[in-house]
Design goal:
Length: about 110
């Protein structure tokens, strides 16, 4: 499994951003191997952290080839003040106590 952590400092979102963001999320959900996402908002700043869960690197690369996703990456300066993407391969997971719907992995 792979995690893509998208850390962002939001800027100004316009209608086009929201339309593109919705299209990208729909594409992710339709991509075989997409497992889900979780979002956190920093309590002391505007920073947002979104973690996407992927079954394989092939699934992630398939999503990355999407035209809307590529277009959004080229236009990031219009909507974000800063961003960082980290791709991580998961070697092991274990959990206790978060409940049935706490993680896309459950």
């Amino acid at each position: 499994m792979y995690l893509v952590t998208f850390r962002l400092a939001p800027g100004e979102y316009d209608t086009e951003f929201h339309q593109l963001n919705d299209a990208i999320q729909a594409t992710a959900e339709d991509t075989e191997g997409y497992l889900g996402k979780q979002t956190w908002h920093a309590p002391d700043s505007e920073e947002v952290l979104v973690v996407y869960y992927w079954e394989s690197l092939d699934a992630l690369e398939s999503f990355g080839a999407d035209a809307d996703h590529k277009r959004a990456k080229q236009r990031w300066t219009e909507w974000y003040d800063a961003y960082e993407v980290t791709v991580t391969e998961v070697v092991e997971t274990y959990e206790s106590g978060f409940g049935d719907d706490a993680s896309p992995l459950v």
